[in-house]
Task: structure prediction
Amino acid sequence: MTAETPALDLKEAGAVLAAESARFASFGWMRGTSGNLSVVLSRDPLRLAVTASGHDKGELTPDDVVLVDGAGAAVAGGKPSAEAELHARVAALTGAGAVVHVHTVASVAMGRREEPGGIVFRDLEMLKGVGLPAHDVEVTLPVIANSQDMKVLGDRLEAARDPRMPAVVVAGHGLYVWGTDPRRARHHTEVVEWLLELELTGR
Result:
């Protein structure tokens, strides 16, 4: 959500998240009921629309969304994803307007290889897709250990994140990516996943 982007209501946000989920599911990045997406509806107080728990992400409807507060607790709707708290933490920490969590093979495989620490990228044209120069820059995609406690995971993300890289890999689990709005978050997700696939196949 940016100054140029009008705030969505919950139903509109549900339609956006359903479309984005279907796109990611078509890539095989949200198999079964895995993964979750969110979009910020307001900043003060912080409110997010988050995809509902337990739904096939390729078949979401505009109603399959839950309104949560800054702690990830449901305000309206059904049961949010168990990771809604982390979505809210990322939105508050980074100022992001949308957060994407996908379970891609490349992110899980590379996370296992690189934990602890991160994955370094340099001299790649695709870095432009996350707002970086293609050359003469080195950036690290952080890799953090997984936890079922979202506060612990959020603390790890906050400690490890690089403000230049709008993403973090959770080892053995998947990828969190964010952007100013759902479209930008989608682009960042596609770019970071491309970088991970390149690194995985290149090795």
